[in-house]
Amino acid sequence: KSANPQWREQFDFHYFSDRKDMLDIEVWRKDNKKHEELLGTCHVDITALPAKQTNCLELPLEKHPGSLLMLIAVAPCTGVSISDLCVCPLGDPNERQQISQRYCIKNSFRDIRDIGFLQVKVLKAVDLMAADFSGKSDPFCVLELGNDMLQTHTVYKNLNPEWNKVFTFPIKDIHDVLEVTVFDEDGDKPPDFLGKVAIPLLSV
Fold first, then answer.
1. Same-domain pairing of 38 and 130
2. 50 and 133 share a domain?
3. By the 8 A CB rule, do 71 and 54 touch?
4. Domain shared by 67 and 85, yes or no
5. To which H or E segment does residue 68 belong?
6. Which of 23, 40, 56, 201 could form a disulfide bond with 64, CB atoms 3.0-4.6 angstroms apart?
7. pTM score > 0.85 for this model?
8. Among 169, 192, 195, which residue's Cα sits nearest to residue 181?
């Protein structure tokens, strides 16, 4: 019941500098559980923003009255990566030794925020549900840890997809849960849910 809402929410997105991405924002109005109305959209060209500083933006909503006030910071993020299985970041024995030294007991209190990182190899899925009329699915896999999210490419027309991707996340909270969800890509429509598994970090 407000025409001037304040959300004060923060979201982290992984943005890879070799991509030309736009940040698309939609504002919705909800009357009840069934009725929703789009109040406006706006777009931010990430590549045009100065790096390593907080940018205060007042964005007018397209074709609708009102504007959206946002703080957007583009900052370097260490430890996050997506790679193919053949060029795994921890494949080098010397690198593994450096990491073992970095996280040994005597260095535990050198940097309290540096808890560690998680590397996940997403190999394949087997016997997925058919989501299309053709009896196949177009599956992709989404990994979420805290408010970090990375995803694989889509393997089209396949119930036994092989992704063979390696994902590396910095760990911010040792009590976080890794959520791995498989979706079926459905063109312009929201993806269909094909399955999910949750893995507490403390169980790894």
1. no
2. no
3. yes
4. no
5. strand 67-73
6. 40
7. no
8. 195
